[in-house]
């Protein structure tokens, strides 16, 4: 029995979760025209899908694009990596040594383990061909013939959907040898992740893809020179690849103009926490935070906004007074002292205890630290134990300075950025909400929780 769009919508409505196809976006590109069921190749083609591929191959009546032209267009678009660091995508593509004589690889990072982030799974579930087309274009631009999409280990339905889409693309001649009769060949495969947060870090992902334990490598060398199986490799996030077909169809300047300078295009924000309508929202970069909050139905039950974690659990928290003045783009959020990260916006209302929030965050990083670096392995557990004793009424006067000192000794001293991700939330919580922590140390009880 086929599921109708209305049935899918009502399933989500029953859980109170808004999804990408609830018309809750401004100027959508990735989520345009989705209704929950129209993911297949014929639907995607009806929305203009695979036209960008035809364009670069010169199969739409016009002259095709060279590799340099594709990379120049992506550079012009201002597209920045949507996986967390916001690195310029066109620049990353230009690092690939195209003349390297051996095998080169393209990898899509669909591991999506950052707490609060749930956009990549929706893209793969509801619009898988947009990622496939984006990857084919990237492979063409960098002269790569083999690619993998590493999909988070616990979302089997999404993995199956992507496999189905791959089969459709192969059957239609968009993937495989001599794509659409051209001289360009590209084989793309799906790969299961192993459900660990650290496997989203690009070099740990490569280790995992090679069948080894997913632990980060020292950098340099970077994947562009020593990647999968030691060969030149480019890794991008799912949402990054999903932006590429629109850029090629409409031009780099048009994409840049959707956002603001240095922050081109739209971004999908996964809004969660204390809002009326949690879910994924695609809006132009540079949209005021207040507008995004309004789209998500505002703070739930008419309560006051207390704080927001703007870019996934590793990004520093911002109090309401600061975030309400921000626009949602890389530069504005960085200027405010945090990071846009993966775009997971965690909203906290005035009933929330910040010590409790930090306790959960620090437990997560202690649990996910993979071991080799002493500051990360020992420091994450140390921070959790100190926050735990504060939360349970055994805090000491020196604990906040101790936490800052441990965080200082983790940040910037580890193999991968998980160390920074564990340290930054601790420092930001103490910086912005110190009186709440001090009150709990003095009284042994949560001030906020007691007042609810
Ligand atoms: C601990 C850790 C976890 C990460 N998890 C993810 C992830 O789940 N998905 C992702 O795309 N990037 C993740 N990243 C970032 C990747 O290492 C990499 O920068 C990204 O995939 C590059 O793609 P982009 O340039 O398109 O953003 C993580 C980084 C760290 C340090
Ligand atoms: S920082 Fe932590 S997670 Fe990253 S490599 Fe070191 S021990 Fe592993």
General description of the model:
It is a single chain. The chain is built from 19 helices and eleven strands. Helix 7 packs across helix 10. 44% of the residues lie in helices and 12% in strands. The protein has a five-stranded mixed β-sheet, sandwiched between helices. The chain has a four-stranded parallel β-sheet with strand order 3-2-1-4, sandwiched between helices. Strands 7-10 form a two-stranded antiparallel sheet. Strand 2 (146-151), helix 8 and strand 3 (187-192) form a beta-alpha-beta unit. The protein has helices at residues 5-15, 41-46, 51-56, 67-77, 89-95, 120-126, 128-142, 156-171, 202-209, 238-250, 252-258, 289-295, 320-323, 330-335, 354-368, 374-391, 399-410, 418-443, 447-451; strands spanning 105-110, 146-151, 187-192, 233-237, 266-273, 279-284, 287-288, 305-309, 318-319, 327-328, 344-349. The longest helix is centred in the last third of the chain and has 26 residues, at 418-443. It has 452 residues and is of the alpha/beta class. The structure holds flavin mononucleotide and iron/sulfur cluster. Iron/sulfur cluster (SF4) is lined by residues 198, 216, 369-373, 376-377, 414-416, 418-419.
Compact overview of the structure:
With about 450 residues, the protein is α/β, with parallel strands linked by helices. It is about 45% helix and about 10% strand.
């Amino acid at each position: 029995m086929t599921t109708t769009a209305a049935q899918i919508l009502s399933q989500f409505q029953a859980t109170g979760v808004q999804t990408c196809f609830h018309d809750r976006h401004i100027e959508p590109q990735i989520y345009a025209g989705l209704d929950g069921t129209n993911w297949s190749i014929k639907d995607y083609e009806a929305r203009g899908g695979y036209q960008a591929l035809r364009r670069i191959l010169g199969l739409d009546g016009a002259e095709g694009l060279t590799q340099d032209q594709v990379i120049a267009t992506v550079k012009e678009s201002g597209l920045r990596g949507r996986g967390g660091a916001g690195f310029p995508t066109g620049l990353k593509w230009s690092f690939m040594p195209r003349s390297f004589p051996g095998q080169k690889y393209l990898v899509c990072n669909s591991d999506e383990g950052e707490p609060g982030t749930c956009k990549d799974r929706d893209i793969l579930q509801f619009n898988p061909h947009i990622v496939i087309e984006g990857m084919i274009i990237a492979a063409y631009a960098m002269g790569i013939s083999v690619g993998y999409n590493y999909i988070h280990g616990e979302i089997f339905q999404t993995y199956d959907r992507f496999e189905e889409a791959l089969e459709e693309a192969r059957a239609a001649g968009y993937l495989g040898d001599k794509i659409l009769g051209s001289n360009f060949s590209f084989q793309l495969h799906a790969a299961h992740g192993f459900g660990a947060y650290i496997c989203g870090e690009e070099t740990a992902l490569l280790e995992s893809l090679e069948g080894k334990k997913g632990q980060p490598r020292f950098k340099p060398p970077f994947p562009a020179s020593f990647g999968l199986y030691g060969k030149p490799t480019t890794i991008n996030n799912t949402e990054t690849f999903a932006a590429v077909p629109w850029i090629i169809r409409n031009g780099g300047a048009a994409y840049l103009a959707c956002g603001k300078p240095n922050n081109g295009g739209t971004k999908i924000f996964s809004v969660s926490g204390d809002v009326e309508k949690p879910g994924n929202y695609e809006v132009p970069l540079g949209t005021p935070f207040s507008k995004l909050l309004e789209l998500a139905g505002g703070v739930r039950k008419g309560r006051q906004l207390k704080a927001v974690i703007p870019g996934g659990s590793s990004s520093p928290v911002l109090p309401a007074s600061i975030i309400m003045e921000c626009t949602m783009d890389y530069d504005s959020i960085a200027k405010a002292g945090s990071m846009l990260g993966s775009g997971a916006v965690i909203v906290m209302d005035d009933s929330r205890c910040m010590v409790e929030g930090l306790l959960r965050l620090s437990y997560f990083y202690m649990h996910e630290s993979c071991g080799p670096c002493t500051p990360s392995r020992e420091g994450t557990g140390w921070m959790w134990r100190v926050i735990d004793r504060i939360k349970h009424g055994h805090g000491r006067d020196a604990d906040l300075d101790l936490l800052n000192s441990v965080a200082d000794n983790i940040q910037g001293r580890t193999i991968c950025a998980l160390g920074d991700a564990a340290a930054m939330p601790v420092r930001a919580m103490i910086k912005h909400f110190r009186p709440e922590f001090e009150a709990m140390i003095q009284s042994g009880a949560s001030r906020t929780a007691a007042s609810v």
